[in-house]
Amino acid sequence: MGKNKEKDLGPQPLVNKKARFNFELISFIEAGIVLSGSEVKSLREKKANLTDAFAKIKNGEVFLDSFSITPYKNGGYANHPEIRPRKLLLKRKEIEKLEKQVKEKGLVLVATKVYFKDNRWAKVELAVAKPKKLYDKREDLKKSDAKIEIARAMKTKNYS
Fold first, then answer.
1. What does the alpha-carbon distance between residue 91 and residue 29 come to, in Å, rounded to a whole number?
2. Could you give the C-alpha distances from 110 to 20, 133, 150, in angstroms and in order?
3. I need a labelling partner for 137 at 20 to 30 A (CA). Which of 5, 24, 83, 144 fits?
4. Residue ranges of the alpha helices (H) in 11-159?
5. Phi, psi of 106 (to 5 degrees)
């Protein structure tokens, strides 16, 4: 087995599909996430919603907001709240670089993926992103519709 193999939540990581549609993703950064035991168990069962998750920088620390992890079914009294700010683990220089980009260029930090690295450590992939305008979204929809039409035409041509 090779080093740095990404082992994730079962066959696939938890992915934020809306991120690519609503934002122009510029660069990515991997961050650790501070979780309680019941949150880890729920995350391993893929009982989480990453759709509206974003990161904020407060007092030199990065927090992931609007990341919903469903309470663990066997958690009992030690269960966690579904939505709460979760601290992300980054190096100080990385945080300063992200803070500079967010403040100066008007960019945002969006969570794009959550997975387990080496089947042990919960990781979040953050994207430095620029919000898309409505006409950009329409253009993306036109491109994807065109690809689908081409694929259909090729499929019917091959059968004829």
1. 11
2. 10, 16, 32
3. 83
4. 18-22, 37-44, 92-105, 134-159
5. 70, 30
CA distance 99 to 107: 10
Domains parsed from the chain with CATH numbers: 14-133 (2.40.280.10)
CA–CA dist 58, 63 (Å, integer): 7
CA 14 – CA 49 distance, rounded (Å): 8
Determine if the pTM surpasses 0.85: no
CA 140 – CA 147 distance, rounded (Å): 11
- Region of 86 please: left (phi>0), alpha (psi -120 to 50) or beta: beta
Among residues 27, 55, 33, the alpha carbon closest in space to that of 114 is found at 33
> Locate tokens 């991997």: which residue?
30
Per-residue pLDDT tens over the stretch 69-125: 988 888 777 787 888 899 999 999 999 999 998 988 889 999 999 999 988 899 999
Which DSSP string do the residues of 52-89 spell out, in sequence order?
A: T-EEEEETTEEEEES-EEPPPTT-GGG---SB--EEEE
What residues contact 36, with CB distance under 8 A and at least 6 apart?
78, 80
